[in-house]
């Protein structure tokens, strides 16, 4: 059973694949600061050493022999509001920091200078070894960077910064075509019935999938029915074109796909999933093929503006990306 907080369903603004960068660290002698932002789970490599010592999958500073503490500055991949963090010390046992804190700032025109004003969003939090530390953050501000403090030194495997990307939709012209469900435009994967082999959030990530694991894939279905996923658009809009990419899925792509859509004004993710059974059909059932980008234009029904879609695959399998190309509604 997944007992992670609800905010972990949001976008990891500090994701390397979304462009996040660790731009400064006081020290990363044992393990490179950029590993802190890797998207995959931290790995343990038995008996692997480099010139500086044991290879660790994360950011690790040397043992401090003077006053002070270490910190790392991260440029977020997407500007946004922060609702929670996960400080992950996986595989760090005798070398994790006893505590950590987090500051953030808004610096849209570049990276922070020495005189930058920072806002504390997470006071000092006690840490344990080889553990996930989830903490909610309550701030209505928008941030571009975070400064991650560890006291006094040591190693952390991953820093995940969950929140909502901030898009200034007022500056988007009504006739501008864009992918309304892309994560960089505020799209979210809300719910699905199965994600055994690949997480649903991969569907709205930038670029094509890099391998079969970089997509949404369900287990082999042994009972009647079909699999589905609910996606929330970053802004309600009119969808003109749909692209379904089955990159790298060859012997396990779905036989066919259909998409339902609606305007949703509220409700939990579970309530929205229940409502989706009765949404109107945006894309009638279409055959899919292996490792291919499928474009649908004339096949779409004219539903007007929608805010959510339900992607149905028959009966099961994997797809890499879903693109909903259209224009924002008024």
Automatic annotation (TrEMBL):
The keyword rRNA-binding belongs to this UniProt entry's keyword annotation: no
Pathway membership, UniProt: Nitrogen metabolism; (S)-allantoin degradation; (S)-ureidoglycolate from allantoate (aminidohydrolase route): step 1/1
Catalytic function, reaction form: allantoate + H2O = (S)-ureidoglycolate + urea
Pfam families cross-referenced by the UniProt entry: Allantoicase
Instruction: Report which superkingdom the organism of origin falls in.
Output: Bacteria
Q: Which family does it belong to?
A: Belongs to the allantoicase family.
| Name this protein carries in UniProt | Probable allantoicase
- Organism listed in the record: Enterovibrio gelatinilyticus
